[in-house]
Amino acid sequence: MGRAPCCDKASVKKGPWAAEEDAVLRAYVAAHGTGENWIALPRKIGLNRCGKSCRLRWLNYLRPNIRHGGFTDDEDRLICSLYATIGSRWSTIAAQLPGRTDNDVKNYWNTKLKRRLLGGGRRPIRYALSQPRLILANPTGAGAASSALERMRLSVQRRHGIPQETTPGFTFYGSLAAPPWPAQQSLFPATATNYSGISTASAYSGFWSHIQTSTSSYTAGRVSVQDQGAGWDSSSSGGTTPLSSSTTTGEAAAGIDSSSSTPTASSVTFGGDMEDEIDMLLRQIRSFEEEDNGQLIGLGHAAEAAADGSAGSWSSCSTPGVDSVFHEYVQQGFGQ
DNA sequence: AAGGCTAGCAACCGCACCAGA
DNA sequence: CTCTGGTGCGGTTGCTAGCCT
Predict the structure, then answer these.
(1) pLDDT at residue number A284
(2) Is the CB of A265 under 7 A from strand B?
(3) Residue A210 has what pLDDT?
(4) Does any strand B atom come closer than 7 Å to the Cβ of A4?
């Protein structure tokens, strides 16, 4: 049984807001604030709009100190870094950018940054790329090379010298001879959920769960990671993987259209709690930064550099201060 | 000049979370 | 404890201006 709609969709006005509507909403919020019920607000002020639409209009457009467009290089880098770290948590990313809204950041990422860094996308690029595009050696499916996820994954694979798997799917995780981060070093006091209870496999899958667009096939794969990761201790991570399960089909790596499902909070978390997750992410960041300061593992030839630039290298968008951003994020109560 | 195509962006949709009844 | 309704969030869609052929 579905829940009742918040308003009568058939009777409320949709589409672009008129200047008069903006003025009415702005005047009301200026006088009464936003503490009241958004659902009841439009009726109260005589707007034939859905309450959610009013809220969205206010947050994304009418709110004071909103900035539109003109993203700076620093903002670009911060968005890239945070996206690489926490995935598509646009509200969290936007919280680090004063005056920016999650919608703005999301649109900016989807229309500019993603294309710039990863190439490809829903719509073809008309302009020439400054660097050659990476051609996947393993085009297992029609969309394999165009998947942003795959590009990110390949980027990290290259960074860590992980050979491309001929088997599609999540075997990437299992192919790690050793986790790419230092030994466990929790930033948090002991909690009910002990970090040591989480395998490197599930930790890594947790990291990727933030970057991966949520597809139905991926969700199936992730579930298998969770289910099986519990029994996969670090001592077994160098060998065969429990991830090459029947749920990881070629589709999982083939760049399935992300429109097939709506990601949810529960679908982007893993078997640990929030603190575990943040802890793991911080170590991941540190690991990347240590690599940047030292030598890249297993990348010895010039072709990699060219490929890196075209397929989405973290180094091209990492921000030195991302660690502090995350500390701040944690201190602020995980962005709340 | 006109039609087609694309990028950019505003807005909508649907789901999950959470608080209060 | 369960249910209900409001809110927040991320993904997707649709519109429009501008560019290209």
Answers:
(1) 52
(2) yes
(3) 35
(4) no
Do the beta carbons of residue A334 and residue A93 sit within 8 Å? no
Q: Where are the domains of chain A?
A: 19-62, 144-331
Residue nearest to nucleotide B5 (CA to C1'): A126
Residues in A 92-131 whose C-beta is less than 7 A from nucleic strand C are: 92, 102-103, 106-107, 110, 126
Unique residue bearing structure tokens 């240590």: A290
CA distance A242 to A163: 18
What pLDDT shows up at residue A8? Answer: 72
Question: Can you give the three-state secondary structure of A196-260, one letter per residue?
Answer: HHCCHHHHHHHHHHHHCCCCHHHHHHHHHHHHHHCCCCHHHCCCCCCCCCCCCCHHHHCCCCHHH
Per-block average pLDDT, block size 10, for chain A (336 residues)? 61 84 85 79 85 86 81 83 79 84 84 66 34 31 35 46 36 29 30 31 36 32 30 30 30 31 31 41 47 38 32 33 41 39
Helix/strand/coil percentages in chain A, nearest 5: 50, 0, 50
Protein CB footprint (7 Å) on chain C nucleotides: 5-13, 15-16, 20
| Residue A76 CB contacts under 8 Å (≥ 6 apart), including other chains | A113, A317
pLDDT of residue A38: 83
A177 torsion bin: left (phi>0), alpha (psi -120 to 50), beta (else): alpha
**pLDDT of amino acid A283:** 52
